[in-house]
Amino acid sequence: MIVARIIEEQRKTTQSGRAQEGCWTLEFERQQPQRADPLTGWNGSGDTPTQVRLRFDSKDEALAYATRKGLTVHVVPAPPVTMKIQAYADNFR
C-alpha cells in the first residue's frame, strides 16, 4: 500500500511575497530503505515515487486526489508562526 504525506507549504524566510502561500504538497513516503551504491558510495534505492511532488491549491484538492488514487495519507499542517518582537537595542544587553 502506498503511503503519502500532505504537507502545508510555508513561506520561505527569504521571500516577502505571498504568491504561493497556502499551497499543499503531496509527497510519497519511502517504501524501500536506502542503500549505499558500491561504485560511487552515494545512497539510493529503486524507490522512484519519492522523487514525485504534487502541488495543490487547497488541502481538499490534495485529499480528493489521494482518495481517487487509493492512497493512505498523513496530513502535516504547518506549525504556527510565532514572531519575537525585539528592539535593536536588545542585541547589546
UniProtKB/TrEMBL annotation:
Localisation per UniProt entry: Membrane
An annotated GO cellular component: membrane
UniProt record, GO biological process: electron transport chain
Record protein name field: ETC complex I subunit
Domain of life: Bacteria
Signal peptide annotation: none
Pfam families in the record: NDUS4
Organism field: Sphingomonas xanthus
Keywords, alphabetical: Electron transport, Membrane, Respiratory chain, Transit peptide, Transport
